[in-house]
Amino acid sequence: MTVSAExxxxxxxxxxxxxxxxxxxxxxxxxxVAPSRVFTFPHRTSQIEGVILRRGRIVPVCNVAETxxxxxxxxRRLYLLAVRHYGVQTEWVALPVTGECELINAEMAAAxxxxxxxxxxxLSHAGDVIEVLNIDAITPGPGQMRVEGETTDVxxxxx
Amino acid sequence: MRVxxxxxxxxxxxxxxxxxxxxGELFAVSSASVxxxxxSDSFSGASTEIFAPGLRKVRHVVRRGDRSLFIVxxxxxxxxxxxxxxxxxxxxxxxxxxxxxxxxxxxxxxxLQSLPLSFCHEERQWYRGLTAIDQTVxxxxxxxxxxxxxxxxxxxxxxxxxxxxxxxxxxxxxITS
Lengths: 159, 177
Fold this sequence. Notes:
Chain A is mainly β. Chain A has helices at residues 3-7, 65-69, 135-138; strands at 10-17, 20-25, 29-33, 48-54, 57-62, 78-86, 89-97, 102-106, 109-110, 119-125, 128-133, 154-156.
């Protein structure tokens, strides 16, 4: 392998949803955590199951399985905390996954125009062709809502 | 040798909140936003029925001088199963009286995290943010989030004629400053 070819390699986290595997760039993964209590409250964003508390932060749990494999997960082993971008802001989102995750180095092929918006690219690993997920496209966000001026930092409560 | 003076503790600012229940779900509201807490029985005696097409969550209105307070069913507002409600919170600086099932406790929150941007529908109007109380995450409601300007206009247009309204002037107990 030449030096230039080595430079093309990126780190990815492989995750499992049901029988399928997907990849997320390792740079977009904050943490891998054991399942914890999901707090629910009324809302109308159907992809969000609720929130978990992690290191004092309140992190939304986003079930992407229905979009990716066509069914909800009945069992889960871990939460992958991914970094979601909203313009210049970033937030964590927790993605429930069903199996162990694996860190690999691979070369990503760019997505084609015909690919779904949530596909950032493709990689080949151990005989499988694996979708690389675009976290910003697979998780809900404000869309047309104006995000400037909104803050997601922890605020001090007003007296 | 000088010994460094111990760091002064930074006073923690906090906000008094009322944690309340609707259909088993917990919510919080700033105590400063609640002008009165009344039993629904005493409040409904002074109310008049109102019907606004497409707005099931408001069924009664209370007249107070020149103002009309619309009684909003918290259960229907949050898409929860219908609940009769036992208490009414009159929300300060709004025209909303919120029907709830009960008060869980009064406490203080020291941190309010804004609602994650992944929540991208009506809940952004409903909630000021989220807080953790005793390791439980509770949404903090926005007092102005129960009735939008469009809903208020619809309710105003649906108000029954003054003559048919109950003239009761439901004054309540002020519980907060």
